[in-house]
Automatic annotation (TrEMBL), chains A, B:
It comes from the Bacteria. It holds the Pfam family DNA_pol3_beta_3. This is Beta sliding clamp. It comes from Ornithinibacillus xuwenensis. The lineage of its organism: Bacteria, Bacillati, Bacillota, Bacilli, Bacillales. Residues 254-376 form the DNA polymerase III beta sliding clamp C-terminal domain.
Length: 378, 378
């Protein structure tokens, strides 16, 4: 194998692929990165067996030459050193050569690295997904679906299925749902597809977080294909493959209250700042509980009490309060997580009493929903 | 105690003072920050008993009012919460009130924090240093003295005296010297003082690191006063007090070779890049040893070998090589640390054979010196 490649192109691809590579894996060769050279371009592959990422650098694209002097072949390189080496090379181009004894030479300017490679034949074959029943959505929409839900997955392994995001595609609507049983985040978007539908596949939150980091915030589309145990996200130069979690995702729709007794309209940023301040004293106790009480004149009081340290209270003028008086306590962390992904100037909060879950939504928009269970404080 | 203060001024002062406060101290009240209000201004104090920092905010300065409605008094507040509270307050001004029951109220806009304070009488009194025999140097010069030496202090507690920087003021020259016995860094500057001199006081590296973080890179002067067990750095609004280490600092001048057998002139940046690359493969082994060999035609070869991973080699064209041929091995970390603080485009390296310490200096400038002991590799 041999090729000469633009260093900056290589750095970007290596960075993406590294997201799938873990130094703690049961399969030693997966600590390495596979490099495959074909006449049409170079493919880098990384995998931790949960996530696999392939990044493709075409030899030529839009009249620009990325890779030259290609002799086909493949090799696996230790991923621990390769990214730093590439990043610190002195010149703009890099020559990478692997000989039949798996000796790899990386050359740039007058610097030369001689590394021991591993046989690419020993690298596991990634499953080829059939892409007949795939659908497409813009990358920026996919990223917001992930950002607005994935933070609510469970981090506890006691119910593994809750560590994933539940994804459905039905009636032309793509829905992401995540819950750790104390809160729930859901978002749906319309998707233009006639033939594809699936009702509930659960993708590990970790996979979606990594995917979100790799994808650029563009309007280019991502192609998504689903099989019984894998999901593939494909862009022009990237294949991102994740396993799907086994098990049944709980029915969540019945958690969502249908009426409300107290309705608040409030500026998102102002509420974030108030809750943030109120949570300062409660950092280590009882999951940062803060309390919200409605007052006269469109004011709510936000308070928090930490016997040893002190007390914080703040009056916040909201746009409107309708319905019953309310005193409710909740985790400030859950509240802040939910508010921070709302992306609207003003939110509507529907409460159904101090002991029932409440819902945060933009006014007149049911495509996103954040639900939080209150905390019993007395 | 009561006052109303500009939030941003308070944030800056709190940040400085926090550098002296540790949550792990044997004296519980030192986990707090002392606040003292006088008619002329507010003083914040933090201390971990090694370092003490006082930051002063004058009530009025250059016609700008920083503090208003001052009622004199003092209180100690838990430092764990105070900085975050101040930083996240909603308005530009803050009112701080302490009552006779040590209850503290922090008010800004509609937000109010009620905290439990502690009696300022219980806070240890900082020693008042006599400032008769003080001298002054510009802040930026002091910062470069620290930066160019402090990295070379020992991090091992086996010889505590080496964890400090040795400071002397003699014959109008202020000298900083640090060594961990494998390398040595020294820098001297002329100081305009007639009456002050001291021969060897050793200030903890940690103190100097914190001081360097707090001081702005200005040409305003720092006043330095030394007693038998403390050193005080004083700027307009800051008192920084550090203890001095007990013990005798080793005589280091005899370590410095007087002749050299091989002299290299080389561009600092190019040498840094080469050494940096050569160290990539050796990260965990034998202190990142790299090897430098002189070649024909003003070239040196820099190599590193890591049997399991591979080998790196690079030819570097230097400006000149004079004297004997040389093959020498050294810690890439020590070399990079030294080169990175040199602040000159080109350095001169004086070698005295493969087994003797070598010296890095700017050409024709003896005010800074970096010495490194080689590593025996065969």
């Amino acid at each position: 194998m041999k090729f000469i490649i633009q260093r900056d192109q290589l750095i970007d691809s290596v960075q993406d692929v590294m997201k799938a590579i873990s130094s703690r894996t049961a399969i030693p060769i997966l600590t390495g990165m596979k490099i495959e050279a074909k006449q049409h371009g170079i493919t880098l592959t990384g995998s931790d067996s949960d996530i696999s990422i392939e990044s493709y650098i075409p030899a030529e694209e839009n009249g620009i030459v990325n890779v030259e002097e290609i002799e086909e072949g493949s090799i696996v390189l230790q991923a621990k050193y390769f990214p730093d080496i590439v990043r610190k090379l002195p010149e703009k181009t890099v020559e990478i050569v692997a000989d039949e004894n798996l000796k790899v030479t990386i050359r740039s300017g007058k610097a030369e690295f001689n590394l021991n490679g591993q046989d690419a034949e020993e690298y596991p074959h990634l499953p080829k997904l059939q892409t007949d029943d795939s659908f497409e959505i813009p990358t920026d929409i996919l990223k917001s679906l992930i950002k607005q839900t994935v933070f609510a997955v469970s981090t506890m392994e006691t119910r593994p299925i809750l560590t994933g995001v539940n994804i459905s595609l039905e009636d032309g609507k793509l829905t992401f749902t995540a819950t750790d049983s104390h809160r729930l985040a859901a978002r749906e978007v319309p998707v233009n597809t006639s033939n594809v539908k699936f009702s509930s596949i659960v993708v590990p939150g970790k996979s979606l977080n990594e995917l979100n980091k790799i994808l650029d915030d563009t309007e280019e589309t991502v192609e998504i294909s689903v099989t019984s145990n894998q999901i593939l996200f494909r862009t022009k130069h990237l294949n991102f493959l994740s396993r799907i979690l086994d098990g049944n995702y709980p029915e969540t729709s019945r958690l969502i209250p249908e009426q409300s007794k107290t309705v608040l309209h409030v500026k998102t940023k102002e509420l974030i700042s108030s809750i943030d301040r109120a949570s300062l004293l409660a950092r280590e106790e009882r999951n940062n509980v803060v309390r919200l009480s409605t007052k006269e004149n469109n004011e709510v009081e936000i308070t928090s009490n930490s016997p040893e340290v002190g007390r914080v209270s703040e009056e916040l003028t909201v746009k409107s309060i309708d319905g019953e008086e309310l005193k409710i306590s909740f985790s400030s962390k859950y509240m802040l997580d939910a508010l921070k992904v709302m992306d609207v100037e003003e939110v509507k909060i529907d409460f159904t009493g101090a002991m029932r879950p409440f819902i945060i939504r933009p006014e007149n928009d049911h495509s996103i929903l954040q639900l939080i269970l209150p905390v019993r404080t007395y």
